[in-house]
Design a protein that fits this description.
This protein is an all-alpha fold and about 70 residues long. Helices cover about 50% and strands about 0% of the residues. The protein has 4 helices and no strands. The chain has helices spanning about 5-10, 15-20, 25-35, 40-50. Helix 2 crosses helix 3. The radius of gyration is 12 Å and the shape is globular.
Length: about 70
């Protein structure tokens, strides 16, 4: 997945993300507006996505991916 909205919906919607991350509804709304998540939620959210057989771009958490080379 390559959008914040796609990740949120894949995880069950905004309230499911609130429960998963322990953040507020306002945080989730802010992530949608900003187009990226807090980097502190990377592990919990990518682990939840992995359990669903899904993957999201690390850049959505402002994480760098290893360079191919």
């Amino acid at each position: 997945m390559d959008t914040v909205d796609a990740v949120i919906e894949a995880l069950g919607g905004p309230m499911a993300v609130v429960r998963l991350t322990g953040r507020s509804r306002q945080n989730v709304a802010n992530w949608r507006t900003a187009g990226n998540f807090s980097s502190t939620t990377f592990l919990v959210m990518t682990t939840a996505l992995d359990a669903l057989g899904l993957r999201a771009e690390p850049r959505l958490w402002r994480m760098d991916e290893p360079a191919n080379g």
